[in-house]
Amino acid sequence: MSDTKHNEFDVDDPRLTAYALGELEGAERAEVERLLAEHPEARAFVAELSATANELERGLAHEPKLELSAEQRASIAHRARPAPVLARRWVWLGAAAAGILALTGFAFYLEGKRAGEMMTRTAAVLTGGSRGDDPPASRAVFGTVGYADGSTNSPNNSKVTPTALLSTGTAAPADANEIVAYEEAPLSETSGGSAIGVGSAGPAGRSSTVQYGRGLSKSKERTVAATRMELRGLGYVGNDASGGVQLQEREGNTEAYAPIVENPFKLAAQDPLSTFSIDVDTASYANVRRFLNSGQLPPPDAVRVEELLNYFRFEYPKADGERPFSVSARVASCPWAPRHQLVQVGLRGQDIDLEKRTPSNLVFLIDVSGSMNSPDKLPLLVSSMKLLVEQLDGRDRLAMVVYAGASGVVLPSTTCDYKTVIVNALESLQAGGSTNGAAGIELAYQIAQQNFTQEGQNRVVLCTDGDFNVGVTDDGSLTRLIEAKRQSGVFLSVLGFGTGNTKDAKMELLADKGNGNYAYIDTLNEARKVLVHEMGGTLFTIAKDVKLQLEFNPAEVQAYRLIGYENRMLAHQDFNDDKKDAGEIGAGHNVTALYEIVPVGVPFQASGVDPLKYQAPATTSTAARSGELLNLKLRYKAPNGDTSKLIETPVRATNASWQEAPPDFKFASAVAGFGLVLRKSANIGSFTLNDAFQLATQGVGEDVGGYRKEFVELVRKAAALQAATDGKPRVR
Question: Are residues 476 and 598 in the same domain?
Fold first, then answer.
């Protein structure tokens, strides 16, 4: 940059704008990044441009048919080069806001002419910010509002005429922090109305709160009283804030969980094989904790026992040799069915030295739709991702894509030496708009592929509540999209956030099909666990398509059932099929699976088909008399491999009791029993949450991180909640 000195930078240099828009590559991009590393003012300026460009994209995305011409884009680009005087930057921002308002208003007028397509519209607000040293009145708030659906909200099914109201905040008096102004539009036979209330800026250096309201008819009576006004606080605080928000009516709980049908007992003589894909997801545990901490028992289908188990680390043997993980098994009696046995199968991934790790090419794909406008969603997301950014360094590259009604690049792929630039981009995010998740996925994978590294990890990290409601939204189409993208060698991890409309089933499905893992972030402590303490497992895959197949010896085992993993079951022939997708293991990950076994000779009433008429029971081989309980086989591939490798381990029978078992076995049994009680399992017998509490207390052990003690307290809370609903005894 010829005009840039060592101790200053040129704000008129067009390459700064081009970098903010993701249009620089190669040497030019590297040169700009070196400049940003030296000048905090330059970093802040570029982050400001990126945020503003993203806001323009989100504002225009509501009307996809209205696009800027080349001349208009050139004009905006020209205005995006402010002079060193700070005031000129805000003049440009105000002009951009006014342009969006004009375009949105024109689009609104066009929509009003489509009488046959009248639907309830969601109002959009664009707020323009002012700095603490600027006149308070410059913080104007503009808005357009929607209209009511004549076929459902207006009397006599009459068509409605869209009514747009605009209420703008004015300068606050010197002694005030907040102004709330709104207007209501009465509904009549021919018109539907909505209204918006907004707050204006307080005096220089003071903070203010913006509120909005929306009124729609909820009655077919022809009366002004049919208009209902609803005000909500947005928590819009500070003198530098700006951005778009989406007005939405309050809705009930729309959280979605996939139904789970518990694995039944199977007769070893009829079906001795059990085949499934491993799972390292932990989302269900954090989600169950969120329910219990809020004073609710979780829905049974929110409880996936395998994810409760895999939340915890167990002292399985360390991997040795060339294998990326160890495989082990332990057998003892079953706490809830003492004449049965419990088999604990454990996998432990190799730990990696983070100082010697390979580079990462990451793309944060962040949901900034209106549904993310909640303290436990976007704000928690931003704080969480900052924790991960702190763990990255110059070996790593990071890009940031956001999506709402449309998708856009907030940060082009940038080396992680420039943490300030990355953090500024995160802090610029604001929620508003509908949710076109598929468009964001397409763009994120495109950027990941453009910056693909052969030596390290390539991963998209999707952060969302899973509420996709625009574009490709059905599970089948999303599955096919993700399955196609994973062929590129880019893996997908999913981090879930928030309450009320969490689409758990969709997020689990995306992570499963994207060769990644799914975690739910309910607190900053959970973010620290997933993204800091377990960063290796979250980001660094050491084996993919990991499948387990157990063959039970009918001479020792009368019946068996796999506890959990209901949505991971595979056909037996899938075990040897290398084209069949399965689960992934990250560095340091633990995987735990429990089987409940009915030994031969124990009374057992099997449900199933009648005995065969034309075939006698199969005869057993010599190996059946070896004292082996089962044979454990495992297949896995290297992260970039296509051919699987086989591990085979026999497990011998034992008469050990659970009382004599080590703490790890007791704790794993307690976690499984806890999950089965919450799921109201038909196979849990008389086992109670009080029993789970006592068992977990005996299994706490060393408890690095305090996660097991936290679980003990969760069991106590669950017992108290259950006692309040169905009279079960409290934990004491």
Answer: no
What is the structure's pLDDT at 731? 61
Between the CA of residue 547 and those of 237, 478, 551, 583, what are the distances in Å?
A: 51, 24, 13, 7
CATH number for the domain that contains residue 345: 2.60.40.1230
Which string of b and e fits 569-587 if b means at least 16 CB within 10 Å? ebeeebbeeeebbbbbbbb
User: Is 4 a member of any domain?
Assistant: no
**Nearest one of 460, 474, 472, 470 to 509, comparing CA atoms:** 474
CA atoms within 13 A on the CB side of 422: 26
Coil vs helix vs strand at 27 = helix
* Phi, then psi, of 730 in degrees rounded to 5: -75, 155
Tell me the two tokens of residue 361: 């090419």
Helix (H, G, I), strand (E, B) or coil at 547: strand
Alpha helices (H) along 295-349: 305-310
Alpha carbon distance 581, 583 (integer Å): 7
Match 């409601």 to its residue by tokens: 469
pTM of the predicted model over 0.70: no
Instruction: Compute the chain's Rg from CA coordinates.
Output: 29
Residues 320, 189 share a domain = no
Domain span holding position 102? 12-111
**Last residue of a domain, which of 217, 250, 283?**
250
Q: SS3 of 377, please? A: coil
Domain check: are 105 and 119 in the same one? no
Which residues of the chain are under the pLDDT cut of 70? 1-9, 37, 40, 44, 47-48, 50-253, 405-406, 433-437, 468-475, 608-609, 617-618, 727-732
Token pair belonging to 615: 């075939």
- What is the separation of C-alpha 189 from the centre of its chain, rounded to a whole number of angstroms? 44
* Spatial separation of the C-alpha atoms in residues 608 and 3, rounded to whole Å: 82
Q: Is the Cβ–Cβ distance between 293 and 717 less than 8 Å?
A: yes
φ/ψ of residue 49, rounded to 5 = -65, -40
CATH number of the domain encompassing residue 510: 3.40.50.410
pLDDT for residue 434: 62
Q: What is the pLDDT of residues 80-122, one digit of tens each?
A: 444 443 334 444 444 444 454 444 444 444 333 333 332 222 2
* Residue 257 counted as domain residue: no
Q: Is residue 258 part of a domain?
A: no
Using alpha carbons only, give the angle 485, 386, 367 rounded to the nearest 5 degrees.
45
Contact status, residue 409 vs residue 53, Cβ threshold 8 Å: no
Specify the DSSP class assigned to residue 530.
I
pLDDT of residue 433: 66
pLDDT at 54: 57
Contacts of 179 (CB under 8 A, 6+ apart): 169, 170, 172, 199, 200, 208
- Let me know whether 176 and 224 are in one domain: yes
Contact 213, 232 (CB under 8 A): yes
Pick from 198, 143, 145, 195: which is nearest to 170 by CA?
A: 198
- 437-450 vs 475-486: helix axis angle to the nearest 10? 0
**Rounded Cα–Cα distance for residues 486 and 459 (Å):** 10
Tokens of 514: 């994207």
Number of Cβ atoms within 10 Å of the Cβ of 707: 14
How high is the pLDDT of residue 154?
30
Same domain? 394 vs 486: yes
Domain termination residue (choose one: 492, 527, 562): 527
Domain count for the chain: 4
Amino acid making up residue 489: G
Confirm whether 710 is domain-assigned: yes
